[in-house]
Amino acid sequence: MPTYQSRGEVPRKRHIQFRDNGTLLTEEVMGLEGFTGNESILYHLISPCRVKELGEFEPIEREEWIPDAHAHRHFKTFGTEPEGDEVSGRKLLMWNNDVEISLVRPAESMDYFFRNGEGDEVYFVHEGSGTLHTTFGDVPYREGDYVVIPRGTTYQFEPSGPQRYLLFETPGLIEIPKRYRNEYGQLMEHAPFYHRDIHPPTELRTHRERGDFKLKIRVRDGYQDYVIDYHPFDVVGWDGYLYPWTFNINDFEPITGRIHMPPPSHQTFAGPNFVICSFCPRKLDFDPLAIPIPYHHSNLQSEEMIYYVDGQFSSRKGIEIGSVTLHPSGIPHGPQPGLAEKSLGATETHELAVMCDTFHPLRLSKLAQGLDDGQYAYSWYEEPGAEHTYDQDPAGATSHL
Ligand SMILES: [Fe+2]
Fold first, then answer.
1. Residue (of 150, 133, 149, 130) closest to 141 by Cα position
2. Which residue in 127, 129, 152, 128 sits closest to 139, CA to CA?
3. Rounded to an integer, what distance in angstroms lies between the CA atom of residue 93 and that of residue 97?
4. Would the pTM count as exceeding 0.90?
């Protein structure tokens, strides 16, 4: 999506003969929004339609938890046990019709290839590194990367060491916010990242192996298995605007103001009816009378899910690395008692967090129920006359909320 790219060999023009050792290659136009959105054109050794065997279809089942009370929630996810692989190990935490948010801690390697046929994906790599092998070539990733995988991309993870991901899946498109781009698509000077921060596939490896390969595709709200008799990474060359890419959260240039900057200043990605934001270490508000942490606010039309990645979160009682807070719509939230006063004079924050704001309510899974601390909703309550008991380093203030 970010810019035009080309890997391997492509013919002089579209839709003309292109051969490999005399064999006419199969041209595939992989495009969005009919024939009007971004697209890439790939040249395959074998027709991508070719299937040897239709396997099982497994519907996705979501076990919903409907809490007894509407309240702010805190889920502790760090202790989630590794299970499955990057696809089978997805543990759904919350979702609506626009986005699904899952925890992934793979315990095993994928012995198959996967393609999401009905949605875009963003893996946030909290821990680990490795290579995402794809139809478009290798995509190396490391801790702090957002790995953006457009629908239709066939891939297989090759992780190096233990991995911990937060995964966003959407039936819509993951995009760079329009207000960051000019009419030609180039990122403008006020954008918090630039094209150099975006990493497309590196090396294209053309696989010519034949034999049985397992392919799993997410379609129609389930997983369809296929057996194909050729390696799916049989692309000789491709070009276009559609391909997987990475962006590291540490390359996000935070925007600081004299008084408090609102969450949209942290926006990294746009989806349909949701945004993904990056909260990075930064200088805090510098007006002499500034309150460097947020004002209370009522999310009348949105839900705020925050995943705490690193830093000091002592401003939020009980918050730890891997914590997820959910501030749902309809009720206000803000700093806990005493924190605004304590934050005065703080000049910087060391937090690192990923936030997803949705414009429609999020549903919670049974997994979320098991991880809910049950107490977070009361963290603003003090017995009448009690002193504020928070004893935190203002520099560690969670400054977005
Ligand atoms: Fe908020």
1. 130
2. 129
3. 14
4. yes
266-298 tens-digit pLDDT? 999 999 999 999 999 999 999 999 999 999 998
Q: How many angstroms is it from 198 CA to the middle of ligand 1? A: 28
CA 187 to ligand 1 centroid distance, Å: 27
Token pair for residue 92? 């759904």
22 alpha carbon – ligand 1 mean position (Å): 60
Whose structure tokens read 């499955």?
Answer: 84
Tokens 């006419």 belong to: 24
Phi, psi of 360 (to 5 degrees): -130, 150
Tell how far the Cα of 175 is from the centroid of ligand 1, in angstroms: 22
Helix (H, G, I), strand (E, B) or coil at 394: helix
As a dihedral over the C-alpha atoms of residue 312, residue 313, residue 317, residue 319, rounded to 10 degrees, the angle is -110
Six-digit token pair at 231?
A: 């390696």
Q: How far is the CA of 128 from the centre of ligand 1 (A)?
A: 29
Distance CA 297, CA 331 (A): 9
Which residues make beta-bridge pairs with 158?
Answer: 131
What mean pLDDT is predicted for residues 197-223? Answer: 98
**Cα separation, 204 vs 213, whole angstroms:** 19
365, 350, 374: which is closest to 95 by C-alpha? Answer: 365
The single-letter DSSP state of residue 261 is P
Report how far ligand 1's centroid is from the alpha carbon of 300 (Å). Answer: 11
The radius of gyration computed from the CA coordinates of the chain, to the nearest angstrom, equals 23
Residue with tokens 């991880």: 371
Distance 116 CA to ligand 1 centre (A): 31
304: CA distance to ligand 1 center in Å?
6
CA of 243 to the centre of ligand 1 (A): 33
CA–centroid distance, residue 64 to ligand 1 (Å)? 24
Q: Measure 309 CA to ligand 1 centroid, in angstroms.
A: 17
Centroid of ligand 1 to alpha carbon of 182 (angstroms) = 29
- Cα–ligand 1 centroid distance for 315 (angstroms): 14
- b/e for 272-287, b at 16 or more Cβ within 10 A? bbbbbbbbbebebbee
DSSP strand pairing (154-170 vs 113-116): antiparallel
pLDDT tens digit sequence for 319-334:
899 999 999 999 999 9
Tokens at residue 399, please? 């400054």
